[in-house]
Every structure is written in structure tokens, then in C-alpha cells.
Specification:
- The complex is a heterotrimer of chains A (315), B (220) and C (479).
- Chain A has 315 residues and is mainly alpha-helical.
- Chain A contains eleven helices and no strands.
- The N and C termini of chain A lie far apart (43 Å).
- By secondary structure, chain B is an all-alpha fold.
- Chain C is mostly helical and 479 residues long.
- Chain C is globular.
- Chains in contact: A-B, B-C.
- Chains A and B meet through helix 8 and helix 11 of A and helix 1, helix 4 and helix 5 of B.
């Protein structure tokens, strides 16, 4: 029992501590692709640390939601961590609390509160960001649903741990539906985390912002929590992509410290590859116009639909 | 024809990527994007032919893979690139008659139709079925691209993609056909692309545009 | 001998490729055409081992010989006219002389590919040859450099390539269904009864739609009026007279396979559907034409429809009638296109309303135009009347009354359209005074020959021709 609690703690800590590192990697790699030196990979930590020490300014018109939202946004990815196989192949004791759909809903909860908080400030940019973020999420939902359906159909389960185990064999891994599903989910990850081609996270032009506009009014410790939370959300989504869908290997089969340590390193390696991929995409593509995002997500939807159909047609 | 599970699954995956590259050519907004999607598709076709060659050991499949690589993945995209760069100066962004989301959804529906039509063919192994489905689906999507695009170059690329799909379907079903037929088909293809390239150049010379909607004088 | 007839066009093309002076090119082309006709006639006369020959990839049976003969006749007529047309063209238009060698090279290649298409029993080679006819004639269609010809050539190449693609898929499916890696038509036909019906049905549909695109069946016909009307007239004659017939040849081959494997019901229904639809569409469009070459192109679609209906009927009478219809239509259409070339040279316009009094301005051409037009509508005493009548009677004899009645009605409708425009064009006096008389001997002689060949089959079917037709029908599989 204690072992399980310790393992859960280790998982929390992994996600908590290494999420900003992944963000730092992406920024650094993007700079390298653009022939710049770029910020240090530890810069997000410095930012968070600095912000934690600063005073948080709250608009006069804001209600309790404004102060409350960052805490929810920060906690939500950690709750999802309980459900997904981050480090171990065997389910930890909270794993059956919710399945993939539940995890998806919990993640959406954080975004929901953030949207409310952004509108709460009464600022125009907040409303802009909220509506656009909802627009993107609304169209990403069907894709996520289709991916979940495919996965559940293929593995006859919805609990991520069981999916992980079942997907590990070559029969399902190289199946066409699997490839399509992986592609569709990756496209959605790009949309949900607000990377190019959906949204430019480094932009300072408010009229083109989607996610950044929601957090414009925040400062101090609230902003620190939001930045950390968004880094953790990306980490969690990428973990789901890697560990549940793409390569369900490299996880610790036992609770031995060596195995767990190795699992952490393997996870970081996977994250590094994902960072490279995302940085490459950010370096080569341009941000889509807002209405073209609908086409982008439409393409993702068609891919996921094909994944389901491929699977049901028995190919 | 498909011996081991890994080879079968490999062909499966390659066929799926083939289908994805067809979708890439449907949604491409730049002329060169279409051509690159076609080049990728030809590469994947070569890979499938090569896998088949390794698995069955038939020498003519190696030759076919080589021919497909040089002609379809290198020569024809080079031809198209030359045509685009030399002649098409004004408008290189592509437009759709029906809009991109409608095109995408129709492509998806066509793939489903293709699978429904070919799913009850007998004597096929599972892996060959994936390749056949990808091939027939690509044929239908290529034909759809020809209908739904206004410019001349994507219409040609649609035809070429359909031809790729045909070759994929042929690999899945009748891979043991004599090579001379495949060579003849490839020659016809090259000649066809040459002719279309020359026509495109003259379209630009005559009408300053490759928009086929502007070439509609003959009616009735 | 098969090799000779296959290599002759190639030799002529090579001669023209080195840009010799014009008379040499003309001579080579005429030699080619004469050679093809002579060899084809000798083959018809059964000079070599009956009607069954083979040499390597090439092979000929009765059906091949029939089509080869009509290709030979049409090529001969069109080549003769082509010489005169280009000379007349050079006098009036600022013809660019450097393109004439391209014309002659492609002309010879085009005829060569058509000869090759009918001289093979290998379905793969058949496909390659038919696709090659498209590629060779693309630039011939686009010979006069105008936006309309460019559009016509573009649609032609694109649409027929689509059709060829589908036909190739159908070919592959037939081979797949047979289970043996062979493209030989005789082997495939023998294996047809053992093929899975679903696959064979799909394959036949694809082959019919694919080669039907090349043949001009509606609704895949949209390239035909454009291409056949924008091409120079001798090229149009070859296109309408010979090229679409090679596609019909391919359809006949596939029909035999389908017949052997699926029985008569399925192929007949499909062919009947396409035939009647093409006929109806062409008949309606004929009523609203403004361009006389386009009118002739729609008439080609109409006759292709009649041929398809004839094929769908089956039985020795209908098949013989269909074969005769193929020949008669080819000759009549070629003659008419050549005549329209003469009219174009004289009147410098292809619009019907601007052409009047052809009979007065060019008596011989006018007479041939009138006679040929009446022939095409199916009036006696010309050839097409007899063949169409045979097809009707076969329909009624097989108690397919609805099909027969539809056939008669639609042909009458087409007749109305065609006669209306013929009437406007042929009689009366020209709008502006024109120098009366023909262009030159080269453009007149083929018309006379063509008229002869249109008249004679309407009056008598020689015994040897009947025997050949019967043998060809036998090859196709009479049921």
C-alpha cells in the first residue's frame, strides 16, 4: 500500500518537476531551428519562481472565479496523472477511478474554469480568447471521441492501463487504424496545447491570440500556477500520446527503484523526441488563420473517422 | 503472397500512409504542395513494391520498384516542378470548387465506398486487402480531386494520384503480371504528363492563367 | 505480314521526323495509308491462312481483320484529304510551315497506334495502344493554336485518361479473377466461366465505363464534341472514323469475356442502358447545334449508341448488323468530316448559320455532304440504313419491343436534327459571293471514294463480306 502511495507521489513529482523542462526544451529547440541561441532550457523554472514571488493584481470587477481558476487549472493535470500510465505498466490504486473519457472530462474542467475566469475580468481580450478557445475545443472534441472509440474497440477496454497493455503487441501496433489514430491524436494535441499551426504561443499580438488571451489579466502567483499548469497539461497529453497510444513500452514493470528510475528516464527521452517534433513543426509551418483551424480539425476528424472505419472493416 | 506477419503489417502501414498522402494532396493549398504529396505517395508505392519484392523474391518486382521510384517519385515531380516554375507566374494558390471541408468529407466517404466495394473480393490475404483498399480509395479520391479543383496542375496531380492508386491495387491483386505491361503503362504515363505539361504552358501563354474555369468557351 | 503492317506507320513517322521537304512527308504518309489499306484488303481476301494470324505480340482474328479494314479505309481517305487540306490551309491561313512536319509525324504515329490496337489479343497491349492513340492525337487536336482548341485538347487528354485508368483497373480485375497471370484474351475468355461473378461484374463495368469514355458513350462523352470539332478536319475524320472504333473493339473483347462468364443478361442491360442514353442525349443535342463539325461529332455519339444497342441485343443477326453499322458509320462519318473540311476551307467559318448554298458554291462537295448526311441519318439507299434496319429487326425478332421502339424513335429524332441543319447549309445561295469550285484534287478524290463506299453497302452485301462478318460475330461469341 505504501509502495503504491510512494509510486503515485513519484508520478506526481515527475510530472510536476519536469513539465516546465519540456517547455524549455521546445523553446530552445525552436530557437536553434531559427538559428538563434535561444533561452536556457531552465528558463520556465526561473519564470515560475520569479512570478511566485511577485504580487498578484486582481481586477476590481472580478469575482471569486478569477482567483479560484488558476488553482483548479494547476490541479487538474495532476488528477489526470492518477489515471494514466506515466511510469508503471501496472495500475496504481487510483487508476480505476476514471477511464479515458473521465480523464478527458477532468482535463476539460480546467479549461472550462479558465474560460470563465477570462470572461470574468470584463476585458475584451478575455472574451476574445475564451470564445476562440471554446471554438477550438469544440471542434477537437469529436476527434478525441473518435480516437477513444477506436482505442476502446481495438483493445476492448477504456482504462488507459489496460489499453496500454493490449496495444503493446505488434498485431495492433502496426495496424492501419493505429497509425491513423496516432496521427489524429497528435493533431489534437497540437490544437489543445495551443501550438502552431493552431495558435502561436510566442505571439504578442492580442488579436491573433487564442490561449494567451485568456491569461492576459493574470499576474504574480496566479500566473505562475497557470504557466505551470499549462506546461503540465502539455506533458500529460504527450504522456497519453506516447504511453497509451504510440509506444506503450519503457514503463516499469515492478516497483523497484531502479525500474522506476529507468522509466523516468525513458519518459524524458520520449518527451525530448516529442519536443523535437513540436519544435520542428513550429519552425516550419505558419499559424493558420482562425477559420482555417476549422479545416485543420476537420482533417483530423476525417483521419480519426478513417481510423474507426478501418478498424471496424477489419483491415 | 504475404508470408510473415511483420511484412503483412508493414504493407498495411505503408498502405495507410499512402492513403494519408492522398488526403494531403486533397487539402494542399499550394501547387508544389500537391506535387510533393504526389512524390511522397510514389515513394510509399515504391516501398510497398520493394516489400513485396523482398517477400516473394520475384525479380521483376525489384525492377518495378526501381522504375516506380525513378519515374514517379523523381522524374514526374521534377517535370511538374519545371512546368510550374517556368510557366505559372500569376496564381499559385489553389482553390476548390466545393471548399476544403466538403472535399475532405467527400474523400472520406469515397474511401468508405471503396472499402465496401472491394471488401468481398475473394482470394485475398488480409494485408493485400489493405493495399487494395488504399489503392481503390486513392483512385476514387484522385478522380474527385480532378473534379473539385479549378487549376490545371491539381487536376493533373489528381490523375497521377489515381494512377498511383491503380498501381497499388495492381500490386495487391496481380503483382505477377509481366513486366512489359507495367513498362508500357509507365511510358504512357510519362508521355501523358509531358503532353499535359506542354498544354499547361500554353494555357498560361494564351490565357495568363491555369484556371480551367476560364477556359469554358465550348458549350452545347 | 502483321509485322509489316505494324512497322509501316512507324517507318513513315521516322521519315517525317527528320523534317524532309513537304512532298516527301506527304509521300510517306500516303505510302503508309496505301500500304495499310492494301495489306488489310489482302487479309480480308483471306490471303493468309484464313483469318487467323499471329506474330509475337500481334495477332489477328476475324474481328481484328474487320476493324483493321475499316481503319485502313478511313486512314486512306483521310490521308488523301489531309494532303490537300494542309495545302489549302497554308494558302489561306498564315500557316506556320514548321508545324506541318509535327502534323505528319503525329499522323503516322496515330495511325500506327490504331492499327496496333486492333491487331492484338493481349489486353495489356490493347490498353497501351488505345492510350497511345489519345496521346498521339492530343497535339493533332490542338494543331491550330487557339484557346478553344487548347480547351478541347485539355478535356480530351484528361477525360480519356480517366477512362483509360478505369479500363486498366477493369483489365487487372479480370486477370485477378482468372487467377492466372496472363493477359491473353483467348485464355481469359476460356477461364471466364470459372471466375467469381462479383469480380467479373465489377471488372466489366469498369472496362465498359473506361473504354466507353473513349468511345463516346454518354455521360462520359463530354470531351468528344469539343475534340472532334476543334481538330483539323482530316484529324476529325480519323478520330470519329477510326479511333472511337478501336474503343468499340475493346468493348467487344470485354463483352465476350463477360458473356462467357456472366451470361447475356448483365452485359446486355448495361450496354443497352449506355446505348439508349447516348442516343437520346445526342439526338437532343443535335437539335440545338450551332457548329457543323460539332453536329457531326454528336452524330458520332448517336451512332456509337446505336452500336452499343446492337451489341446488347446479341444473336447472329444483331451482331452482323452491328459490325456493318460500325463500318458504315466509320466511312460515312469520315467522308462527312472531310467534306466539312472542304466547306471550312471555302467558307472560313464553322458556324452553321453562316454557311449556305454549299451545293451552289461547291457542287461536288455539296452533293457528297448531302448524300453523306442523309446516309448518317439512316435513310436508304445508303449503307447505314441497312445496318440500322438489321439491328431493329433483330430487336423486334427477340421480342425486345421497347428497346426497338426507343431505338426507332430516337433515331428519327436525330434524323430531324441532322436534316434541319443539312437543309440550311446545303441549299440556297451563299451569303457572300464565293469563288465556286473545289479546292484541289486531293480534297475531292477521297470524297468520291467515300461516297462510293457509303452507297455500295446500302445496295449489296458481298458474300465475302458476309462471311467475314459472320466469322467476326462468331469470334465475339454469338448467343
Amino acid at each position: 500500500m505504501t509502495k503504491a502511495i510512494i509510486l503515485n507521489l513519484v508520478q506526481f513529482l515527475t510530472v510536476l518537476l519536469f513539465a516546465p523542462l519540456v517547455k524549455g526544451w521546445i523553446n530552445r529547440l525552436k530557437a536553434v531551428f531559427q538559428s538563434r541561441r535561444g533561452p536556457s532550457v531552465w528558463q520556465p523554472y526561473h519564470d515560475i519562481f520569479k512570478l511566485l514571488g511577485k504580487q498578484s493584481v486582481i481586477p476590481a470587477e472580478a469575482s471569486w472565479i478569477f482567483s479560484f481558476a488558476p488553482y483548479i487549472y494547476f490541479t487538474v493535470p495532476l488528477v489526470v496523472v492518477l489515471l494514466i500510465p506515466v511510469l508503471t505498466t501496472f495500475p496504481l490504486f487510483m487508476a480505476f477511478m476514471g477511464d479515458m473519457l473521465g480523464g478527458g472530462f477532468v482535463l476539460a474542467l480546467g479549461g472550462f474554469f479558465l474560460v470563465l475566469a477570462a470572461m470574468d475580468t470584463g476585458s475584451a481580450f478575455g472574451g476574445l480568447g475564451s470564445s476562440r478557445a471554446r471554438f477550438v475545443s469544440f471542434m477537437a472534441e469529436p476527434v478525441l471521441m473518435m480516437v477513444f472509440f477506436t482505442v476502446s474497440l481495438a483493445t476492448q477496454a477504456t482504462i488507459p492501463y489496460i489499453v496500454n497493455k493490449t496495444l503493446a503487441g505488434p498485431a495492433l501496433l502496426l495496424a492501419p487504424s493505429h497509425i491513423l489514430m496516432v496521427l489524429a491524436f497528435f493533431l489534437v494535441v497540437l490544437a489543445e496545447t495551443g501550438r502552431i499551426p493552431v495558435d502561436n504561443p510566442a505571439t504578442n499580438q492580442e488579436l491573433s491570440m487564442i490561449d494567451e488571451a485568456r491569461v492576459m489579466e493574470y499576474s504574480g502567483r496566479h500566473l505562475a500556477l497557470l504557466q505551470w499548469g499549462s506546461a503540465m497539461k502539455m506533458f500529460v497529453l504527450l504522456t497519453i500520446w506516447w504511453n497509451v497510444l504510440v509506444t506503450p513500452w519503457g514503463l516499469a514493470a515492478s516497483a523497484a527503484p531502479a525500474a522506476v528510475g529507468l522509466a523516468v528516464i525513458v519518459l524524458l527521452a520520449k518527451m525530448a523526441v516529442a519536443a523535437l517534433l513540436i519544435a520542428f513543426i513550429e519552425g516550419t509551418l505558419a499559424k493558420l488563420r482562425l477559420l482555417r483551424v476549422a479545416e485543420y480539425l476537420g482533417a483530423a476528424f476525417v483521419v480519426s473517422l478513417l481510423a474507426v472505419i478501418t478498424y471496424t472493416m477489419g483491415v | 503472397m504475404f508470408h510473415s506477419l511483420v511484412a503483412g503489417r508493414l504493407v498495411d502501414s505503408l498502405a495507410t500512409l499512402f492513403l494519408i498522402s492522398t488526403f494531403a494532396s486533397v487539402v494542399a493549398r499550394q501547387m508544389m504542395g500537391c506535387v510533393y504529396a504526389y512524390a511522397t505517395q510514389s515513394l510509399l508505392l515504391t516501398a510497398v513494391a520493394l516489400t513485396l519484392a523482398v517477400v516473394t523474391g520475384a525479380p521483376h518486382l525489384y525492377l518495378l520498384a526501381g522504375l516506380a521510384f525513378f519515374v514517379k517519385a523523381l522524374f514526374i515531380p521534377w517535370l511538374l516542378k519545371r512546368t510550374i516554375h517556368d510557366s505559372v507566374h500569376e496564381k499559385r494558390e489553389l482553390s476548390f470548387y466545393f471548399g476544403m471541408p466538403a472535399s475532405l468529407i467527400t474523400s472520406g466517404i469515397l474511401v468508405v465506398v471503396a472499402w465496401a466495394a472491394t471488401s468481398n473480393l475473394p482470394n485475398l490475404g488480409a494485408a493485400a486487402l489493405a493495399a487494395l483498399n488504399a489503392g481503390v480509395g486513392t483512385i476514387l479520391i484522385g478522380l474527385w480531386t480532378m473534379i473539385s479543383r479549378r487549376e490545371a496542375v491539381p487536376q493533373v496531380v489528381g490523375l497521377l494520384c489515381a494512377e498511383n492508386g491503380l498501381m497499388m491495387a495492381a500490386l495487391a491483386t496481380v503483382a505477377d503480371l509481366p513486366l512489359i505491361t507495367e513498362i508500357g503503362i509507365l511510358l504512357d504515363l510519362v508521355a501523358g504528363v509531358l503532353i499535359m505539361g506542354i498544354l499547361v504552358r500554353h494555357m498560361v501563354a494564351v490565357g495568363r492563367t491555369t484556371d480551367t474555369a476560364k477556359f469554358q468557351r465550348l458549350r452545347g | 505480314m502483321l509485322l509489316a503492317i505494324a512497322l509501316l506507320p512507324l517507318a513513315a513517322a521516322l521519315v517525317c521526323l527528320v523534317r524532309p521537304p513537304r512532298p516527301v512527308m506527304e509521300g510517306a504518309t500516303l505510302a503508309n495509308a496505301t500500304g495499310i489499306l492494301v495489306i488489310a484488303s489482302l487479309m480480308v481476301a483471306g490471303r493468309w491462312a484464313g483469318w487467323n494470324l499471329s506474330y509475337g505480340f500481334l495477332s489477328a482474328d476475324a474481328l481484328s481483320v474487320w476493324f483493321l479494314f475499316l481503319v485502313g479505309v478511313v486512314t486512306f481517305l483521310a490521308s488523301l484529304h489531309s494532303v490537300g487540306y494542309l495545302r489549302g490551309d497554308a494558302r489561306h491561313e498564315n500557316g506556320r510551315p514548321q508545324r506541318y512536319h509535327l502534323y505528319y509525324v503525329l499522323w503516322n504515329v496515330f495511325t500506327g497506334t490504331m492499327v496496333l490496337a486492333v491487331l492484338t489479343r493481349n489486353l495489356g497491349l490493347l490498353w497501351i495502344a488505345i492510350e497511345a492513340t489519345t496521346l498521339a492525337s492530343a497535339f493533332l487536336v490542338w494543331f491550330h493554336d487557339r484557346p478553344e482548341t487548347l480547351e478541347a485538347a485539355w478535356k480530351y487528354v484528361l477525360l480519356t485518361s480517366v477512362g483509360s485508368l478505369l479500363a486498366l483497373l477493369g483489365t487487372f480485375l479480370v486477370v485477378f479473377a482468372a487467377g492466372a497471370p496472363t493477359l491473353d484474351w483467348t485464355v481469359l475468355r476460356a477461364a471466364a466461366p470459372r471466375m467469381a461473378p462479383g469480380v467479373l461484374q465489377l471488372a466489366f463495368v469498369l472496362a465498359l465505363v473506361g473504354y466507353g469514355t473513349k468511345a463516346g458513350y454518354a455521360p462520359m462523352h463530354t470531351w468528344l464534341p469539343d475534340a472532334h470539332s476543334q481538330a483539323p478536319s482530316p484529324v476529325s475524320a480519323l478520330l470519329s472514323g477510326a479511333e472511337i472504333n478501336t474503343a468499340v473493339y475493346a468493348i467487344m473483347r470485354f463483352r465476350s469475356i463477360a458473356l462467357a462468364g456472366l451470361g447475356p443478361a448483365f452485359p446486355s442491360r448495361l450496354l443497352l442502358g449506355f446505348g439508349l442514353f447516348s442516343l437520346a442525349l445526342a439526338a437532343f443535342f443535335l437539335l440545338v447545334q450551332k457548329d457543323y463539325k460539332r453536329m457531326l461529332a454528336y452524330s458520332s455519339i448517336e451512332h456509337m449508341g446505336i452500336i452499343a444497342v446492337g451489341l446488347s441485343l446479341g444473336g447472329p443477326l444483331a451482331l452482323a448488323g452491328t459490325l456493318w453499322q460500325v463500318f458504315n458509320h466509320a466511312v460515312a462519318k469520315a467522308t462527312l468530316f472531310l467534306t466539312s473540311g472542304n466547306i471550312l476551307l471555302k467558307y472560313r467559318t464553322s458556324r452553321i448559320t453562316e454557311v449556305r448554298g454549299v451545293l451552289t458554291a461547291m457542287p461536288f462537295s455539296g452533293a457528297v455532304f448531302l448524300a453523306g448526311g442523309l446516309a448518317l441519318t439512316g435513310l436508304p439507299p445508303f449503307g447505314p440504313f441497312l445496318s440500322e434496319f438489321t439491328i431493329f429487326s433483330a430487336a423486334f425478332r427477340q421480342h425486345l419491343v421497347a428497346a426497338g421502339v426507343a431505338l426507332v424513335l430516337l433515331i428519327t429524332l436525330a434524323l430531324a436534327g441532322l436534316i434541319k441543319w443539312l437543309n440550311r447549309m446545303v441549299f440556297g445561295y451563299p451569303w457572300e459571293p464565293l469563288p465556286a469550285g473545289e479546292n484541289n484534287w486531293w480534297t475531292t478524290l477521297p470524297l468520291g471514294l467515300g461516297l462510293f463506299l457509303v452507297l455500295v453497302p446500302g445496295l449489296v452485301w458481298p458474300g465475302w463480306a458476309q462471311a467475314l462478318a459472320a466469322a467476326a460475330a462468331g469470334v465475339m461469341g454469338v448467343n
